[in-house]
Design a protein that fits this description.
alpha+beta, 4 helices
Length: 161
């Protein structure tokens, strides 16, 4: 059966299927299902060009998706793409869909003149790490991933200058 990778916009006929699968993806990582909030959030991200999404479609059914953001690579005066999410419905796994989605992003980034494509995943996600290294992604050494979690109820301290 043929799989087609399609750039996704909120006006696309398959958008609601992508949003539903995105909600499944969130639930897979322990977040409560929230179909309407997920659909609204994804719509806003795409409408405001904060990220791009492509979907894998087989027989008019969305079976996977990938999202990416484009960031400035300021020191090199270029751009870098970051894959943010990649998910294939469990019953469609091991059929080449994740690889096809990755290749779509890599091709799009190359065509846009990007200087690199990066991604991150958990260190114990062996199937993902295996796929990513088979495609050619390499671990980055000498860098640390740091996060600052912001609490929307906290107020900024007053400037003391």
């Amino acid at each position: 059966m043929t799989t087609t990778i399609v750039p996704m916009a909120s006006a696309h006929p398959a958008f609601d299927q992508v949003a539903a699968l995105f909600d499944d993806y969130r639930a897979h990582y322990g977040h409560p299902s929230s179909p309407e909030s997920t659909r609204s959030w994804l719509h806003d991200q795409l409408a405001q060009h904060r990220m791009s999404t492509a979907a894998a479609i087989r027989a008019d059914h969305v079976c996977g998706f990938i999202t990416a953001t484009i960031m400035p690579a300021s020191l090199r005066l270029g751009s870098a793409w970051s894959i943010r999410d990649l998910y294939v419905a469990p019953h469609h796994r091991r059929g080449g869909i994740a690889n096809a989605l990755l290749q779509h992003i890599i091709h799009s980034a190359r065509a846009a003149g990007a200087q690199r494509v990066s991604l991150q995943t958990e260190t114990d996600n062996i199937p993902a790490l295996t796929l990513y290294t088979e495609v050619g992604f390499q671990p980055v050494t000498g860098l640390e991933l740091l996060n600052l979690t912001l609490d929307p109820t906290d107020q900024e301290p007053e400037d003391t200058l």
